Amino acid sequence: MVLWPHLKQITVNNFHTTILLPLIATILLISIWIGPGNKVLVWFHALRPVHLFFLTFLPIITLTYHTIRHPRRVYLVNYACFCPDSSWRASMASYIEHTRLVPFFDESTFHFMKRMLQRSGLGDETSVPPSMHYIPPLDELSEYRDEAELIVFMVIDDLIKKTCIDPNKIDILIVNCSLFDPTPSLADIIMRRYKLRHDIRHMQLSGMGCSASLIAVGLARNLLQSAAPGAHALLVSAEILRQYKGNKRSMQLQNVLFRAGGAAILLSTSKANARFELTHIVRKSTSAQDDAYRCVSREEDEEGNLGINLSKDLLDIAGEALKSNIASLGPDVLPFSEKCKFLLSFTLGKVLNGRINIHVPDFRTAFQHFCIHAGGRAVVDGVQHSLGLSDEQAEPSRMTLHRFGNTLSSSVWYELAYVDAKGGIKKGEQVWMIGFGSGYKCISAVWKCIEPTQYADMAWEDCIDHLGPGGNKIPRRVTRVSII
């Protein structure tokens, strides 16, 4: 019985070899072995075409349909997060002082940013690149390119060290970066640095915002399922920081929350040495709605300064996107008891004309760990309140925000690394990643642990002992914000 899942996976991954070829070989052997007067051959000749169709093509069609409905499984082999050098560090006091000295912020903007920083949930160990330590910050292409190469090469080197993979074994490369789009692309820069194969399928995603990393996971899954068995996909998530130089308040959160970060992820259809299995991924976009389309946009202010404008309705729009996402994810992951409670309350609500509250499914019954995009304190508080999560379950997101700030699309990997560093993920437990991004999009990815780790990622190894329970636990701000 233990071998059955492995045999089934081998059959699915090698469909043509394990099913079609033996079937064809069997038919040929029968044709050779039976003589012209054999009753079996006479019976075959007596069959009508429709019978021959059901006898030969129907099993093949059935097996093909099964393969389509049950595609190859995709696994997370391992991942690595960027750990900035101590010279990148921007403590709260130094960052506030730096903001005061920058010449393009007026007095009211400085006081606004100071208040936002003090309430942001960020700690004294977040980091910004060297170009942003200058007064005024350097705004040169060479600086952005150096920052990108340092982050990207460091996380890929660490991932190769963890997985011992030969770069020639990488079949797919997907890079996401929304704020920096050089030519040649970052994907081409990586290919040149690591001498990847000329036939590799590589691409770069831009404009997807903080959801880009999980969008890349979905794209890699589809490509891997159509690639040769045992193929590998390298995903690189990095956002290169730029400072907004204007005084429009709705565009200041870019300066307040965004910090340096990045991650590299290795996916494969081979279970060998893998740590997680990707069980579900759900993507919902509300871009067709005008308010959702404009709620996060990169634009110029009245003075021509480029920055990211965040709408005051962002939390409400994020709530609608999350609601749509979990409506699709819930039926696939929730236990039978939770589905029954929801159906019963929904039916009674219809019968009693809404005089009974509809049961909100408890996703804590389906997942043991939660990685909520660390977009800001209000986002984490809102999702925690809406899903009914405990402070311990929201801790990875809150600690990531405190230690690293909003690292945009890579934040969910810092959160997974935090749980790993605490030794909190056991075999068979599930992790729910929730990403939000411009458009407006909400992405869910569900990972099932198949091999726990005993080692902390380099991003957390120097500080994990004094964070979380028994250490420097960050208190949750009292809030009534609901994201759903």
From TrEMBL:
Highest taxon of source: Eukaryota
Protein name in the entry: Uncharacterized protein
UniProt organism field: Avena sativa
Upper lineage: Eukaryota, Viridiplantae, Streptophyta, Embryophyta, Tracheophyta
